[in-house]
């Protein structure tokens, strides 16, 4: 598989991290320099970076930035707490954010009374890298398991972006698609544009071009027509949080796809790492759905597209009921029955 040479989503330096500004893609490759935890919080909130696993990885490095200049373990604890709280408030729906921050906190608590300050700082930096490396391995496993499971489904519809830009690895749902292409299982990918941020049209199409995978960008409301005409064999999407019973929060528009897939007897598949499964919540009732600024709907590239006094409702995610999902694929296995 080709790498995203020249546009890696994250570059780690000694005193800063460089984040590929995904708002500018595909027209411009530009990096945002984050030198503090506040910079990282801004980058996550403003969707300079996005995608549940990659938000978690970025937050882990933000945690490190919060305390990297500490002179004592006492100072380090204070800064870690402040950084943790700042990062925790950035995006409420993606559970990977909480998973990554808790992992960093665990290292902090375990080693704070054992290691000298400079070694503890290095340990935390290494912990962030470990999270990233583990995600890459998990992506490869999801890709392999998913490609085998879906090897007879040659025309795939996907939503939002679930590739390298969303995970730092090959991706989850898009990782399966990339692996299917590599194995010769794939004919065509339908890419939902994914309003209002156009992560499909801008980012997924960008990644598919790098992989030389045949695709078509379609409007979000094309799914019914495509399925009715028999053009789609399966739908594969990612997830931002999965409840214990399999109810799944993902980018707004996912639920509509699931309902249409059920209506037309088309496989609807969720791909996500195990860390996206939140075993602390039983059902969708425990999932907070983020509501974002109305301007994202009322404007496009800073140009107003609605009447001056128009109001908008901008849910960033929706929730797909477990009975609409045929399988959830993680790095461990394919789940067809959900009680995690």
Walk me through this protein's architecture.
The chain is an alpha/beta fold and 340 residues long. It folds into 2 domains: 10-138, Four Helix Bundle (Hemerythrin (Met), subunit A), CATH 1.20.120.420; 143-335, Rossmann fold (3-Layer(aba) Sandwich). It has helices at residues 37-45, 52-67, 73-88, 95-111, 117-149, 164-167, 173-182, 199-210, 223-228, 254-263, 295-298; strands at residues 10-12, 17-20, 31-34, 155-158, 188-192, 215-218, 234-237, 241-242, 248-251, 267-271, 299-300, 303-304, 317-320, 327-329, 334-335. The strands form 4 sheets. A 7-stranded mixed sheet has the order 6-5-4-7-10-14-15, with helices on both faces. A hairpin with a 5-residue loop joins strand 8 (241-242) and strand 9 (248-251). Helix 5 packs across helix 7. The longest helix is centred in the middle third of the chain and has 33 residues, at 117-149. The chain is globular and about 65 Å long.
Explain briefly what this protein structure is.
This protein is α/β, with parallel strands linked by helices. It has helices at 37-45, 52-67, 73-88, 95-111, 117-149, 164-167, 173-182, 199-210, 223-228, 254-263, 295-298; strands at 10-12, 17-20, 31-34, 155-158, 188-192, 215-218, 234-237, 241-242, 248-251, 267-271, 299-300, 303-304, 317-320, 327-329, 334-335. The chain has 2 domains: 10-138, translation initiation factor eif-2b, domain 1 (Four Helix Bundle (Hemerythrin (Met), subunit A)); 143-335, Rossmann fold.
């Amino acid at each position: 598989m080709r790498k995203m040479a020249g546009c890696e989503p994250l570059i780690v330096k000694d005193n800063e991290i460089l984040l590929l500004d995904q708002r500018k893609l595909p027209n411009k490759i530009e990096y945002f320099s984050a030198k503090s935890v506040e910079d990282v919080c801004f980058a996550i909130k403003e969707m300079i970076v996005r995608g549940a696993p990659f938000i978690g990885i970025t937050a882990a490095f933000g945690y490190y930035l919060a305390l990297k200049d500490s002179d004592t373990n006492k100072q380090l604890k204070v800064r870690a707490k402040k950084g943790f709280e700042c990062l925790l408030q950035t995006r409420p729906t993606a559970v990977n954010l909480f998973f990554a921050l808790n992992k960093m906190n665990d290292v902090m608590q375990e080693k704070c009374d054992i290691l000298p300050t400079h070694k503890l700082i290095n340990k935390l930096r290494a912990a962030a890298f470990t999270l990233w490396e583990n995600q890459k391995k998990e992506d490869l496993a999801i890709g392999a398991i998913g490609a085998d499971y879906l090897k007879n489904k040659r025309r795939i519809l996907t939503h939002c972006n679930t590739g390298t830009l969303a995970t730092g690895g090959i991706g989850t749902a898009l990782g399966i698609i990339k692996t299917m292409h590599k194995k010769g299982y794939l004919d065509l990918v339908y890419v939902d544009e994914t309003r209002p941020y156009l992560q499909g049209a801008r980012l997924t199409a960008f990644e598919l071009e790098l992989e030389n995978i045949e695709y078509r960008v379609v409007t979000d409301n094309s799914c019914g027509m495509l399925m009715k005409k028999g053009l789609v064999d399966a739908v594969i999407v990612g997830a931002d949080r999965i409840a214990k019973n399999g109810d799944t929060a993902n980018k707004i528009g996912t639920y509509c796809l699931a309902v249409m897939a059920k209506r037309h007897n088309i496989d609807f598949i969720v791909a996500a790492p195990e860390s996206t499964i939140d075993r602390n919540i039983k059902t969708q009732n425990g999932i907070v759905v983020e509501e974002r600024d109305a301007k994202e709907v009322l404007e496009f590239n800073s140009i107003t597209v609605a009447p001056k006094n128009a109001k908008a409702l901008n849910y960033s995610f929706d929730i797909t009921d477990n009975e609409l999902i045929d399988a959830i694929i993680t790095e461990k296995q394919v789940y067809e029955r959900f009680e995690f």
